[in-house]
């Protein structure tokens, strides 16, 4: 039996306009103009050889025959929508890699490099959620969790991929205004702090053998990426993690006035649920992180 189907775009416009009782509302739902909906409805009327709406003073009302037709075809659109949603979810899950990573790491290291991963694997969708919470507190399952380490968690495979130290960094323009020739010159500057990392400056100053240094001022932020941005903007001097400021140092947005001392820091590691260790997406993403980490 040969199928007799009207123009499907026109049918979709008719269904929306008839269900909503308005060309304007149908246009909003379909993300087109009301004129486009009107044009599609007229196309369908021409194909059928019969009117579908009674038009009076910008008001549209279904004809009795069109109303009966809509009652038959309307549920079919709902079934198509439901079937497509179920199929789409299955496909999306199979292609989506879910990653949880700390906010500053994501902003300053992962995001600038993700385009390279996507270029090499265009069939993967990467969903990144930022969190600084401990792995065991996560409420949702993720394919890959990035946190500091190395740590051991039951049911997870751990692999380090990026190491770093911490040392003072600042804008080159700041040094032009107030030079830093030795660590003691920090007393003339504003030291930038992060509330979640209160020991960074005290520990570095102790390593530099000036534990009692009093800076000209201090400024504290609640997020580390804000602290680093303040350093780039020339507001003060921050304790910069070498891995996360490497791009800024290379581009000249930041400079490191002192090569030492350097505070050791935990490595960035991937934690993967045991049942997902052999998942192709996970294997590829993990290997890519490790290659990027080696070249950073």
Automatic annotation (TrEMBL):
<keyword id="KW-0238">DNA-binding</keyword>
<dbReference type="InterPro" id="IPR036388">
    <property type="entry name" value="WH-like_DNA-bd_sf"/>
</dbReference>
<keyword id="KW-0804">Transcription</keyword>
<dbReference type="Pfam" id="PF03466">
    <property type="entry name" value="LysR_substrate"/>
</dbReference>
<dbReference type="GO" id="GO:0006351">
    <property type="term" value="P:DNA-templated transcription"/>
</dbReference>
<dbReference type="InterPro" id="IPR058163">
    <property type="entry name" value="LysR-type_TF_proteobact-type"/>
</dbReference>
<protein>
    <submittedName>
        <fullName>LysR family transcriptional regulator, glycine cleavage system transcriptional activator</fullName>
    </submittedName>
</protein>
<dbReference type="InterPro" id="IPR000847">
    <property type="entry name" value="LysR_HTH_N"/>
</dbReference>
<dbReference type="InterPro" id="IPR036390">
    <property type="entry name" value="WH_DNA-bd_sf"/>
</dbReference>
<comment type="similarity">
    <text>Belongs to the LysR transcriptional regulatory family.</text>
</comment>
<feature type="domain" description="HTH lysR-type">
    <location>
        <begin position="6"/>
        <end position="63"/>
    </location>
</feature>
<dbReference type="InterPro" id="IPR005119">
    <property type="entry name" value="LysR_subst-bd"/>
</dbReference>
<keyword id="KW-0805">Transcription regulation</keyword>
<dbReference type="Pfam" id="PF00126">
    <property type="entry name" value="HTH_1"/>
</dbReference>
<dbReference type="GO" id="GO:0003700">
    <property type="term" value="F:DNA-binding transcription factor activity"/>
</dbReference>
<dbReference type="GO" id="GO:0043565">
    <property type="term" value="F:sequence-specific DNA binding"/>
</dbReference>
